Structures are given as C-alpha cells and as structure tokens.
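Service request form, structural biology core

Requester: graduate student, group of Dr. S.
Request type: structure prediction, single chain
Budget code: on file
Notes: please return the result as structure tokens.

Sequence provided:
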Amino acid sequence: MSVSSAHDELLTPRVAVTVFLVFAGTYFLSALVRAITATLSPTLSAELSLTPGHLGLLAGGYFFGFALTQLPMGRWLDHHGPKRVVLAFLAMAVAGSVAFALADSFYSLLAARVLTGMGLSACLMAPLTGFRRWFSPAVQLRTNSWMLMTGSMGMVASTLPVQWLLPVIGWRGLFWALALLFVLSMAALAWSVPAWTRHANAPAPAAGSPDGGYGLIWRDHYFRTMVPVGFMNYGGMVAVQALWAGPWMVKVAGYTPDEAAMGLFAINLSMLASFWTWGVVNPHLARRGIRPESLIGWGLPISLVVIVAIAWLGPRAGWLLWALFCVSSTFVALSQPAVALALPPQAAGRALSAYNLVIFAGVFVLQWGIGLAIDALDVFGWSEPHRYRGAVALFALCCVAAYGLFWRGWRRIERDRAATLRP
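Core staff response, request fulfilled:
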C-alpha cells in the first residue's frame, strides 16, 4: 500500500469521532454481556443448582465462542472490511441473547452463551482493523486504550446497575433488553461506518497462499513473544475481572452478594480509569520512543506480586487487592495494538484476530480451569476458602512462568534492535 493511498484512507476528525463512538457503544454492550455472569452467578447458582465448575464453564463458554470465530474472521475483516463483518456477527448476538432469555437448563444456557460469544467476537476486532487504516499510529494507540475503557464501562454497568435491575425485570428480562440494544447498534453501525475500499488493501490473496493465510502471523517473532502473556496474563486478567473476583469476595472474603457487586463495581471503575489514562499517555510515550514491550517488561511484574499476595492473604484480600491486580495487569493490554503495528497493514485483521484468539483461548481455559481446580482440590479435604486460595496460587505460578517466556523473547527483540542501530 502506498503512502498516498494510506493517507487518503485517514478519516476526517468529525467522521472519526462518530465512527469511534458507534463502535465504542457496541463494544460497551459486548463487555457488559461478557462480565454479567459474575453478577448473575448467585442468582443462576440458586435457580439452576450450578457448581463452581458449571459457573466457570458457563462464563468460559462466551470466550469459547470468541475463539471459534477468530481465524476465519481475521480473513473476512481483511477482505470484506469491518462494517459487513460486524453486522453479520451481531445478528448471531441477537439470537444468542434471545436464546439465553428462553433457556431453562445449564446446557441451554451454555449453548446460548457460546452463540452470543461468537456473535460479539467482532465488536473489538472490527474497529481495531478499521482504525489500522483510518487513524494514524499514535491515534491508534489512544483509541485502542479508549475502546478498552468503554469495555470497562460495560463491565461497570454489569455490576451494580444489573444488581439493581434484577428484582425489577429479572435476568431473563435483562437479556431481552440486550437483544433489542444489539439491534439498535446494528442500525447505527450500518449508518455510520465507512465502506471498505479495496484499492487501499491490495487484491485479496487466496486463503491458502502465504500472504492470505496465517503463516506470516505465526512465524513473526514479535507476535510469538507476546503469546505467553496474552494467553496467561491478559487472559487471566479478563477471567478474574469477568468472573472469579466476585465468587472470591463472597466465598473467601465473606462479602454479601450486594457487597460483592459493589466490589466488582469498584474494580471495573478502576479499570476504566486505567484505560482512560493509557489513552491519554500512549501518544506521548510513543513520541518519546518508549516501546510497548518495554512497558510490559517493566510494569507487568507488579501484577505478579499482587496475585501472589492475594493467594497468601486469603480472607484479608478483598476488592482493593483484586482491583490492584487488574490495574497492574493493564500493561499487557498494550500488546494488542503493538502486534497490529508490527505487521503489514493488509494483514491487520489476521494479526489482531490471531492475537485475540490467543487472549480469549486463555480466558476460556482459565475461567474453566480455575473452577475445575476449586472443585478438584476437594480431594485434599480442604474447605471452600482454602480451595479458592489453592486455585489462585496455581494461577499465580502460571502467570510467573508466562512472564518468564515473554522476558526471554523481549530481550532478543532488544538485542536485535540494538544490532540494527550499530554503525
């Protein structure tokens, strides 16, 4: 793609703001649905007799749906563009929301959850693919963080507001309302998002060719360096924020369901503030030459210390420490736009979708895996609070190991970069 054609694709400020806001509103709804199981877990557990393993699988089913669509979606985004792809996928989200509202068993809830996850899997990847062509690199770093901020707003809305609405319309009424909101989002996206012009994206290569498939992505050293922390640390942050922080506060820290909802509200509000801050500072850091992998390398260890402290402190670890863990984990969110910028613009959809597959495969494995660990540790005769602590300790060990793998790749990137700068 030539410089001139790349420049011609940049949106005017007014159009850019409109496009960002419409995509952000849709992502807000998808994040609300993603996290809503943490707030609904006491209600669903009581009504359908769900175990921790069931809860983990139900929450993880959403991310399993995400993972199923990522690789084909990446090619579709590069070929058809964000508008057509996100509209087609949101139709599945409407169907999934209706199916969840009508479900009367765990397995029907799970099937609806997977379908909803598939339908909402384009809500972040579609805008980020468009931003790769429509916005300058510095603006991309900012808009990526602010998209995640709107996701945090959705997760905030999934806590106390949902808790307040439950007695009024019930959890089934919530999902009927969400289905309607997704239909309205589709109308707004159809009206505001630009068409995908093929001249700016070279003629689409065949899916089986080296340029049309994922070989270019998986072989890239920068991409592979980000995989361990994307799967374990990023995926773990989302798994905790979307599910396990809530049950921990009730089962281990002794919170009431209302107090746990308040704690989740505070955690998600902290995340919102963090992503807003990253959106403000990222362009300044980029201008100073401070690279995302360096920020991850120096900042992510804070989260490792915090998660170990949570497992150690047990009942004394309430919402504040979980908020600190999630906030200190946001360093790894810088990896998402960094991966897109490290690869050619015509491969942006595939790069983002492949990395999103890594992240949400991690979320699915960890949400389900932590629940399975809690159930499995009963073999030692441990009490429920001790089983939660043991599962979190295992998760902490995995996070440390993933960071170690990232550190080795990061040092190689630094050495290679230094070698290219030598005279």
